[in-house]
Amino acid sequence: MGISLDIILATVALSIGSFMNVLDSTIVNVSLSHIAGDFAVAPTQGTWVITSYAVSEAIFLPLIGWLTKRFGIVRQYIMATLFFTIASVLCGISFNFGFLLFARVLQGIVGASMIPLSQTLMMGFYPKDKKAVALGIWSMTIILALVLGPVIGGWITDSFSWRGCFYINVPFGILSTYVVYYIFKKRGYKDKTEKAPIDIVGLIFLTIGISSLQIMLDKGNDLDWFSSKTIVVLAILAFVFLTLLTIWEWYHKDPMVNIKLFLNRNFTVGALSISIGSAAFFASVVVIPLWLQNYMGYTAFKSGMATSTLGIAIMFIAPILGTQLNRFDARKVVVFGFISFTISSFATGNYTPDVTAGYIAFSRFLSGIGLGFFFLPLNTITLSEISDREMAGASGLYNFMRNIGNSFGTSLSVNFWNHRMAIHHQDMVAAVNTGNPNFISYLHNTAGTFQDKLVVINNIITEQAAIMGVNDIIIGSGVLILLLIPLVMLARKTNK
Predict the structure, then answer these.
(1) 427 with 468, same domain?
(2) In whole angstroms, what is the distance from residue 110 CA to residue 328 CA?
(3) Which residues constitute the domain of residue 208?
(4) Which residue, 77, 105, 364, 457, could crosslink 310 as a Cys pair with Cβ 3.0–4.6 Å?
(5) Where does the pLDDT of residue 87 fall: very low under 50, low under 70, confident under 90, or very high at 90 and above?
(6) How far apart are CA 449 and CA 443, in angstroms?
(7) Is the confidence at residue 1, as pLDDT, over 50?
C-alpha cells in the first residue's frame, strides 16, 4: 500500500508542530541573560522562563488521554497548535517579566497536547506496515529540535532579539494548523468524543505532585539541593501527592490519568527506559555547551554548531530505520543502539584543553548514531500493545516520562559536573608543591610575581578540571545506558 500525498502533507504538518513545540523548550535557554537584562531581573529569576513552561507542560502531559476523549484528537491538536502560536506572539510582545511568565505558562498548557497528539495522528494516518516510518519521522523531529534549539536560539538572539525566538513559531504554527485542518476535513474525519467526568481530586493531586517535582528539579542546583528547606518541602510534596495520585487513579472509575497502562509490560519497560535513557543522553547535551561557553570561549552559536552533529546522525538514521524496523526485533535494535552509544562514549570521552571544534562535532556525531538506533525502537516497544482508544493517553504518559528524564538529566548532570570538577581540582592542586619538578620549572621559566604565577596555574587547573568533569559525564552516560540492556530485554518481542 503506497503513501498518498495527503499522508505526506499531514506528516510534514504534524512534524512541524512537534518540532516547534520541542524547539520552544530549549530555544530560549541561550537567551536568558538577554531576557533578564531587558526586564531588569536577576539571572536566577530569569530561569523561571524555562521553569514556568516545563511545569505547566508536565502537569498537562498525563492528562492527554482524558482531554482527547472529551474534545477529540484532531480538534484538540488544531486548537492546541493555534493557541500555542498565539501564546508565542504574547511571549514576543511581553511588556514586563510577569506577563512573559504568564504567556510561557499558557504555552506549556496548550503545547502539552502537540507532541503526543502529533505522534498519535501520524500513527493513525499510516497503514499498519508503515507505522514505524511515522515513528521514525516523529522521533527525528523531536531529537533535532532538542539539539538545534540552542543553535537557532543563539543565532536569533545574536542577530536580532530574544523576542524572535518566539515569533519564529508564528508561520510554522499557522501552516501546521491549516494543513491538518484541511486534510482531516477533506477526508471527512469525525472526532469521537465522550463526556468524561472531571476528576477534581485527581487533578489536584496531579497538579501539586508534578509541579513540586518539576520545580524541585529545575531549582535544585540554584538552591543547593537538600541543604535548602524549599527543596526538602518540594521533595516531600512531590512524593506524597504523586503517591496519592497513583492510589486514587488506580481505584477511580473514570481516572484522568490511566495509571493502569503501567500494567502493560512493554509500556512500562519502554517508559522507564526512555526516562533513564533521556536522562543519560541529555546530561551531555546540557553540560558540553556549558563547558564550551564558560571555559573554552565559544559563543552560544558556535557551541551549538559544534554539538549539532548529534542531530545530523539521527536525521539520516531515523527515516531509514523506520522503513526497516518491522523486519527486526525492536529489542535487539535498542540493545545495538545502547552498545553503540556506550562505545562512542568510551571512545570520545577524552577531551583535552586543545580539543578542536571539529573533533567535538565528530564525537557528537558518533553519539548520535547510537541515539538514533535506540530512540525510535523504544517508541515501537512502548506502544506496540496499546489499543487505538488508549493511544493518545499512552503517548502523553510516555512523553511525560521522557520529559521527566530530561529534567533529571539536566539537574543531576550539572550537579555531578560541579562535584567532579571540585574533586579533580583538589587532586591537581595537591600536586602543586615544591616536590613537583614541573611546578619548579614553571616558576623559573615564567615572568611575573609569585602570586601572578599561582593565579595562572589555578586558572589552568580549573580549566583542566572542567574538561575532566565533562569526560566523566560522557563516560558515565555510556555506563548508565549500558545498564538498561537487561531492562529492555524484559519486553515482549514486537515483530511476532
Answers:
(1) yes
(2) 37
(3) 199-255
(4) 364
(5) very high
(6) 9
(7) no
Cα–Cα distance, 133 to 327 (Å, whole number): 12
CB 371 within 8 A of CB 337: yes
Question: How many Å apart are CA 53 and CA 51, to the nearest integer?
Answer: 5
Residue-wise pLDDT tens digits, 374-395: 877 888 888 878 877 787 778 8
* Helix 48-60, helix 5-26: angle, nearest 10: 130
* % the chain with pLDDT above 90: 11
Helix pair angle (64-71, 73-92), 10° resolution: 110
Residues 474, 461 share a domain: yes
Compute the distance between CA of residue 74 and CA of residue 17 in angstroms, rounded to an integer: 13
Transcribe 305-333 into DSSP letters: HHHTHHHHHHHHHHHHHHHHGGGS-HHHH
468 vs 434, more confident: 468
Alpha carbon distance 146, 151 (integer Å): 10
Average pLDDT, whole number, for the chain?
82
pLDDT (0 to 100) of residue 339: 92
Backbone phi, psi, residue 62, to 5°: -70, -15
Which of 164, 50, 56, 28 minimizes the C-alpha distance to 113?
A: 56
- For the chain, counts of helices (H) and of strands (E): 22, 0
Q: Is 315 helix (H, G, I), strand (E, B) or coil?
A: helix
Nearest one of 109, 54, 140 to 410, comparing CA atoms = 54
Based on the fold, state whether residues 178 and 204 are members of the same structural domain.
no
Please state, in angstroms and rounded to a whole number, the distance separating the CA atoms of residues 449 and 453: 6
The C-alpha cell at 456 is: 595562572
pLDDT band at 43 (very low <50, low <70, confident <90, very high): low
User: From residue 355, how far is each of 144, 352, 411 by CA, in Å?
Assistant: 25, 5, 26
Average pLDDT over residues 166-193: 80
CA dihedral of residues 112, 280, 292, 57 (deg, nearest 10): 10
- pLDDT tens across 12-30, in order? 888 888 888 777 777 776 6
Q: What burial letters (b/e) apply to 467-478, b meaning 16+ CB within 10 Å?
A: bbbbbbbbbbbb
> 342 pLDDT band (50/70/90 cuts)?
very high
Q: Report how far residue 80's alpha carbon sits from residue 303's, in angstroms, rounded to the nearest whole number.
A: 33
221 and 181 within one domain: no
Looking at the structure, do residues 1 and 112 belong to the same domain, yes or no? yes
**How many separate domains does the chain show?**
3
H/E segment holding residue 354 = none
Q: What is the CATH number of the domain that holds 169?
A: 1.20.1250.20
Tell me: the pLDDT tens digits for 404-431? 887 788 778 878 888 888 898 888 887 7
